[in-house]
Amino acid sequence: MSKPVLFDFFATWCGPCKLQTPILEELAKKMGDSVEIRKIDVDQHMDLAEKYGIRVVPTLVIEKDGKVVKSMEGVTDISTLENLLKPVVD
Description:
Elements: E1 5-10, H1 15-31, E2 36-41, H2 46-51, E3 59-64, E4 67-73, H3 78-85
Parallel strand pairs: 1-2
Antiparallel strand pairs: 1-3, 3-4
């Protein structure tokens, strides 16, 4: 089993995306290498945004073993993210 991946679909011009970044940085400190966090700029990676059906930024997508576990639009707080990630961490 692989570790879960948290995709942060964002845009540099997006105000709420700037609020999400420090939350993800704190999450990375708390969860260490048990989860991989990847930031995806939708303006530079429209193919990935289309693949995941991204319509709003920020959107966070949790994927485990190549399957989407959860997708959340808008700014998501750290406790929600921890509660969603803990069950899928090996």
